[in-house]
Amino acid sequence: MIRDGSQRRCSRETFSDHTLHCLHAMKILIYGTSDSAYMTVARLCKEHDVTILGDQETIPDAFNSLDVSYVVGSGADIGALERADAGKNKLFVACSQRDEANIVACWTVKRIADIETVCFVGSVELYNN
Question: Which of 32, 63, 77, 92 could, after both became Cys, cross-link 96 (CB 3.0–4.6 A)?
């Protein structure tokens, strides 16, 4: 079930089973609609309030069965991050298909919010730097 514009409650978590059962529900903002984003959202939305920030005008079909909110915009756009209430979230996960976009999104959200970030990077060169 998709909720547009409004946020629901969520909790902070990492992606291991050990961590998942130890934390309370929190608000999580996910940037991207890649396959990695889908797997992450599908896992997190069961116990947390998840909002997806994506570049498409409508949420991709794969996400329609998940209980999430969707906001259109880029993770590098401060206005889009503010529309997604980035400052009210505890965790920001950047997992778009482009490594550079993920890095910039994490950097940008840190400029406007006191939030923990997770950045998906597939390039060894970028990861090592």
Answer: 32
**Triad 18, 22, 24: Cα angle to 5°:** 140
Residue-wise pLDDT tens for the chain (129 aa)?
444 443 333 333 444 554 445 457 899 999 999 999 999 999 999 999 999 999 989 888 999 999 999 999 999 999 999 999 999 999 999 999 999 999 999 999 999 999 999 999 988 777 676
Q: Give 69's DSSP letter.
A: E
Give the separation between CA 34 and CA 94, rounded to whole angstroms. 10
Q: Model-level pTM?
A: 0.79
**Cα separation of the two ends of the chain:** 39
Closest of 127, 49, 34, 123 to residue 88, by C-alpha: 49
Angle at 121 between CA 117 and CA 122, to 5 degrees: 160
